[in-house]
Structures are given as C-alpha cells and as structure tokens.
Amino acid sequence: MTDFDYWSPTYIAFGKDKESRTGELVRRFGGRKALMIYGGGSAVRSGLIGRVEASLSKAGVGFIKLGGVKPNPRSSLVEEGVRLALSEKVDFMLAVGGGSVIDTAKAIAIGAANGGEWRRFYVGKEVKVRPAIPAALPVGVVLTIAAAGSEGSTNSIINLEPENLKRGAGGDILRPKFAVLNPELTMSLPPFQTACGLADMFAHLCERYFTPTADVTLSDNLCEAVMRTVVDESAKIMANPTDYQARANVMWAGTLAHNDICGAGRVQDWASHGIEHELSALYDCAHGAGLAVVMPAWMTYVHDANDARFARFARNVFGVGQGEPDAAAALAGIRAFRRWLKSLGLPLTFAELGAKEEDIPTLLRTLNLSGNTLGGFKPLAEKDVEAIYRLCLNSDGPY
Amino acid sequence: MTDFDYWSPTYIAFGKDKESRTGELVRRFGGRKALMIYGGGSAVRSGLIGRVEASLSKAGVGFIKLGGVKPNPRSSLVEEGVRLALSEKVDFMLAVGGGSVIDTAKAIAIGAANGGEWRRFYVGKEVKVRPAIPAALPVGVVLTIAAAGSEGSTNSIINLEPENLKRGAGGDILRPKFAVLNPELTMSLPPFQTACGLADMFAHLCERYFTPTADVTLSDNLCEAVMRTVVDESAKIMANPTDYQARANVMWAGTLAHNDICGAGRVQDWASHGIEHELSALYDCAHGAGLAVVMPAWMTYVHDANDARFARFARNVFGVGQGEPDAAAALAGIRAFRRWLKSLGLPLTFAELGAKEEDIPTLLRTLNLSGNTLGGFKPLAEKDVEAIYRLCLNSDGPY
Questions:
Q1: Class of the CATH domain delimited by A191-391
Q2: What is the ipTM of this complex?
Q3: pTM > 0.90: yes or no
C-alpha cells in the first residue's frame, strides 16, 4: 500500500423523490443563487427540472438555467455558462443530469471563481502535473444516469473546441458538495445508455484494480466487491429496466467506483481512459461504448505484465479460470469480460463503434504523448497505444 | 436497499510519519488553538506527543494538553476537559490516541460549544431518538490503534460516573475533520490490544452485515470485502507484529468498518454492542474482548431468524459451509468466527473475561431496555438478552 490522502466529502441523499431536497441541500452548502445546468429535453419532459425548480423556490434559493449540454460536453457551452454565472453573480452550480452535465457545471464553477479563466486548467496526457485550481464555486448534483461517477469525483472532462481535444481538470476542490441519487430517475434510460454507464463504472474500477502496487488486500477486495455488484445487478436491469433495487445498487456502485474509495493507497492505471477519450472526441461516440472497445484490447496487450493479477480478476469477479494456471485464467477473464460487455449490447470493435483504421495516426496525434508514457500498470509508449488501437480492429478478442 | 443519507467528510492522511502534518491539518480546518487529548504514558514515551507538538508549533497552532484518558473513558475527565476548553478558549479538539481518547475529545467538543452542556446528549438503549447536538468544536485525530473507528464515525461513548453507565452521543457533527493514520504507530501495541481492536472492527462490520434489509448486494459485498481483509491480515500481524503492510490494511479497514460506507442503505443491528457495553462498564474490560464473548453468543441465539444470511457469512468470509444446507453452514460460520477469535487470544466466555453469572441481573438493569427491544436483525426483549448473557457462560460455542 502506498501513502495516500483521501477526502470524499460529498453529502449523499439517496432514495425515491430525494430531488425534493435539492433546495435544502443547496442552502446547507451556502448557495443563495444557483445556475442550474442540464442537458436535453428528457429532464424537462419528465418533470424533473420542474420538481427541482419547485424545491429551490421552496427553500428560497434563486436560480437561473442553462440547458443544452451534449455528451462529450463542449467548451462553447462552458464559455456561455461562465459569462452567465459572472453576469448573474450566482454563488452555486447545480448540475441536473449525468457526467457531461456535471463536468460542464464543474468547468463553469472554475471559470466563475477565477474571473472567467478555466481553460488553462484542462490539460492532456502530455502534462504530468495538473495545474492547481485556486478556487471554484460549490457544485451540487441531481444525478440522472449511473455512469461517470462525476457526482463524487475530483474530475471534469471537456471537449475543447475548435481543436476537438478532450482534456481534463482535477482537484479536491471539484468534489461536489452534495449528490441527490434517486434510482427511479435512471429507470427510463434506453438500454444502450444504461449499458454505456455500466461499462464506464466498471472501467473506473479496472483503472484502479490493475495496479503495480503490492499488498493492497483491502482495496483489491473493495474493487472486486463493487465489480461483482455491477456485473450481477446489470443482468437484472437488462432483464427488467424498472427493477428499483438493481438500479439502486448500480447507482450507488457508480459513485463508489469513482470517489476513490476503491483506489486509495494504490498506483492507478488510466491508460484505457486516455486511449478512449481520443475516440469519443473524434467520433462523438459514447464514452462507455468506447471503453467497451478499448478495455479488452488494453487487457489483451498488457495482461502478461502481471498474469497473477488478471487471473485473480478472472476468478474473483467473473468466477472463471478456477484451477487453471494464471496465464490461462487471465485470458479466460478477459474473454468473460468481453462476453459481459457483449451481453449488454455494447460494441467490441472499431467497426461496431464506427471508428476507422485510417484514423489511428490522428488519434495518436491528438493523444499527444510527446514522448511520455501512459498508464500505471504497464507504462505504454505511443507504439504500444498504436498496437492497442490495432487490437480494437480485431473481433476475435484475446488470442 | 433503504433510503439513506451518507456523509463522511473526514480528511484522511495515511502513511509513515504523517503525524508531522498534524499542524497543517488543524489549520486547514480552522483551528488556531487546540486542546490535545491523549491517554497514558506510551504516547509520550514513544515520542509521538513530542512530534505532534512540534508539528503544531511549526504551523503556528497554539495548544494546551490534557492526558490521562483511560479505556472506557470516564465522564470526570470530560468535565475537566470542558472546563479547560472553555477557560482557555480553544477552538479545536485534537485527539492523539485510540477510541477512548477520540470519544473523550468529542464529548469535550460538545461541552465546549454548548456552554458546558454535554451529558444530556449521551443516552442509552431506552432512548429511541438521540437528542440533536446543536454545536461542537471541530475534532482532529492522530490515531494510535486500529479498532474503534471513532476517527471517522458519528459517535462517542462515555462511561458516566458515578453511576458507571456507558452511554453514547451521535450525529454527523461529531465526524472528525481529519484523521492521521500512520500504521507504524500501531506496530508496538501488545498482541492483546491488537486483537481487541480486530474484534472491535469486525464487530462493527457484523452489526451492519446482519440486517433484515433485502437487496443490498453492494453493501453486502463491501462488508464481506472488509471482513475478509481483517481476517486475512490478522494472521499476518499475529505472526509478525511489525508487518507494515498488514498493519496498513487493517488500519484503513478499521476506519471503513465504522464510517458507514459498509452500512449505507441497510437497517443495522447493534444489539451486540449494546449487550457488551454493560460488560465493559461493569468490569472495565476491553470493549473488543467483551465483543469476542458476546458476538458468537448473539449469533448462536439469532441465526435462525435468517440462516441464509449466516450461511453466506460462513461461505464468503470464512470459506466454510460450502455445499452444506444453510442451517448447517450458519453454525459452521459461527464456529469459524469463534475459532478466529480464539486464534487471536481473545476470551470467549464470561469466565475468561472475568464476568460473573450472578451479575446478569445487574447487567440487565443498567442496560435498562424499559420494555423496548434491542437490535435490528432480530429485535431482542430483555429475556432474550438474558438468554444471550447465559450463552456466554458456556464454553462450547454453537450447539
């Protein structure tokens, strides 16, 4: 176990109808005038936005609204939000939506607290140390999809226009003050979006699980506990999208997959996320779908750096590879992982995702490793990343 | 899964020498003048108190000190601390020690912020709703034993004199602002104290695990993950008390066992704690030792309320009872649990603890159920508690 600092102060209000407490929670964390950020029409049509507005009004919280956040959230909307937040002098950012909405609210929170500056805090893989964010407005969340974990995380990812670069900012200052988690809000999600969310949260666990750090019994056990939950409950949700209890377990799992309770004290990987972000930036595909393509390819490429760890993953998460040698069990685990992704209806190859072999040079250019390596489990140079992109062309899985 | 609120804002600084950051952390959370609470001489002799003092001075934090906290912490020292905190106008409570020291600091934190009033917030099993604590000074912790979990919990337990009643206060306001966890500080603990700590943290997990709530896949998996960690790492510590990595995993497990990450969304039990507190109040025995006697007896008495849950415990935590019917597996699990406690050198009976059969009426009187029941897994009336105390007389374990 490595030394670590851990701080996860997000207040969780979990259960049916908890969005009715939004106003009370904004006030508890000091908000008097909020900028509410949301996405498309479904949050409006479902009545959710109206219920949140009523809660804010009841608590005496003033608010303005900015909708239109798209998946792979764009910098142009952040710019608009920063101008609005500054001119309207809001003191709180309220995100009503999923990861893209929350990440947009976090970016605006930075800009509004730093005289409009936010973009310089968003950097790529070529930067080893992220710039410290000196200030940010407090952020609260009403979550509508179990996926990104941004409701409890330190991170925000924005698609920087016009270059179309997906870049991230991070720091404890970006941890939301509160998150309202009502599993009922996730019941009407289309199966593909639900599946993308499951892949995303599972990937957040993998990025922490596949570590070079030894003697991490506790966080190994925690990672496997949450992974098994996601796999077991996913089958229930796919069979019955309105299974409240399965939705509830998965919603809470999505938060714990990314608030770093499963990553404390271990070197983490994050290569797959870096590799995937170039795909969703270029093709505007769903991040979870991109991860479903990239992660098994990454596993196939790196597993022999520590087959024992991959064998443990196989046995403890998917219940395969028992009694087999580690190298065989490792491959059995990757196959089981791919089968699970396929059972969710997710793409497994570039072709299924809509990505193109001839774009690989472009992906490597925008990834911009600049001679640095990517990932903590097995550091990857550009040629390794290229090999992983090429594995994504192959529909056969581990070889 | 039930609805829940969850808020665990304690900042964790984990690793070797992290006590050197105490001053920085007190300042971060607003402290300018601290009252440092500690126990006996070992923290002084080891040089820990000196290192913490140096850190406070370096950060420009003023401080005064109050030592002498005993296990099963006494109200008289709380009274002294409250008078000192008020007269010296401290704005921060710093606990350097284990559960008793932290609980004393929390009690003083209440008294100092409420004009000296603290005792009325400490109540027993006869009170169903704890009084809300209107204010408390911020508390920080430098932990020296992995056990009580008070470094991340909402609770404080004090032995109220002169009646010798062990009573508790609780509320999010008592969550420490920070906890310094340096596993090296726990390496010199005598084996019996180490064992008592292991029993205590395991009991905190059992109190959450044994629930009547259905569909709690995630927190079931989390409870089992932490339980397995405690059992597996305990053998390493018993074999080699200076195994840093085993001490590190157990120290972090002790915090996660009681910050409620493993209990969110489920009705909890807490009968064993209630039953044990009367033992440590009357005999001044170690809480963990009392739990080692009470918990298997409680399990033996209640398991048939849900043998499937006890069978799962047997199979997933102790790896016994595979392929057996649930009722048989349940007993196998209780036996394995007892064997584990015995392997740690803990008492298993009243006689081994130094408790007496003839005191059972006294224990029931001070427990003072007043017609209420105890516990969430299987509500216990006074006659049930009496039966459990009587099971503690028997050295044969489950029958």
A1: mainly alpha
A2: 0.97
A3: yes
